[in-house]
Specification:
heterodimer; A: Immunoglobulin-like; six-stranded mixed β-sheet; five-stranded antiparallel β-sheet; B: Immunoglobulin-like; seven-stranded mixed β-sheet; four-stranded antiparallel β-sheet; about 50% strand
């Protein structure tokens, strides 16, 4: 079954606006992680939220987790052109991370 | 800052040829992974490796694929007889912990494989 499905698939906003990306998953998890990928590059870990946490902050990032709805959201506040990238959520089930399709975020200057 | 390194960055091969992709995980990490990403698509799990054996593998990881940690530092992915559909970016990743308290994965920059 698919895990970690993000929406929207693509998001284009103006610099300075906030960007919100959502992720849904289907099975129980240990934690959920968000990663960023610049075009043609490797994935970089952004933030990890454990299954017993509801919200977590890191700089301009805010992640929420609702295990009852099996969903998570990533909010990037005060976006910058350098935030342009693909963002993936990944559900962690001990032996592996399973990634979603990702959201392509474009920040227009 | 420690990092996962992968070689080669790009390899072009003929269909049917064997390919070995190499990775040096972060030195104190115990869990190792290979993922692949076909252009423009999602990052797909191939295999996880711990304590010198495969922990889990996906349906993609058929008998044409194998992994090895030959010398305690390198972690290799071998594709025995490449097919056109093996063309993708292959990412190696490692992490320190797994199980009940798993942490983040650290990814290499990837090896782009092009099969002609």
């Amino acid at each position: 079954s698919q895990q970690g499905e993000e929406d929207p698939q693509a998001l284009s906003i103006q610099e300075g606006e906030n960007a919100t990306m959502n992720c849904s998953y289907k099975t129980s998890i240990n934690n959920l992680q968000w990663y960023r990928q610049n075009s043609g590059r490797g994935l970089v870990h952004l933030i990890l939220i454990r299954s017993n946490e509801r919200e977590k902050h890191s700089g301009r990032l805010r992640v929420t987790l609702d295990t009852s709805k099996k969903s998570s959201s990533l909010l990037i506040t005060a976006s910058r052109a350098a935030d342009t990238a693909s963002y993936f959520c990944a559900t962690d089930r001990a032996q592996k991370l399973v990634f979603g399709q990702g959201t392509r975020l474009t920040i227009n200057p | 800052e420690p990092e996962v390194t992968q070689t080669p960055s790009h390899q072009v091969t003929q269909m049917g040829q064997e390919v070995i992709l190499r990775c040096v995980p972060i030195s104190n990490h115990l869990y190792f992974y290979w993922y692949r990403q076909i252009l423009g698509q999602k990052v797909e799990f191939l295999v996880s490796f711990y304590n010198n054996e495969i922990s889990e593998k996906s349906e993609i990881f058929d008998d044409q694929f194998s992994v090895e940690r030959p010398d305690g530092s390198n972690f290799t992915l071998k594709i025995r007889s490449t097919k056109l559909e093996d063309s993708a970016m292959y990412f190696c990743a490692s992490r320190e912990t797994s199980g009940s308290s798993p942490g983040e994965l650290f990814f290499g920059e990837g090896s782009r494989l092009t099969v002609l």
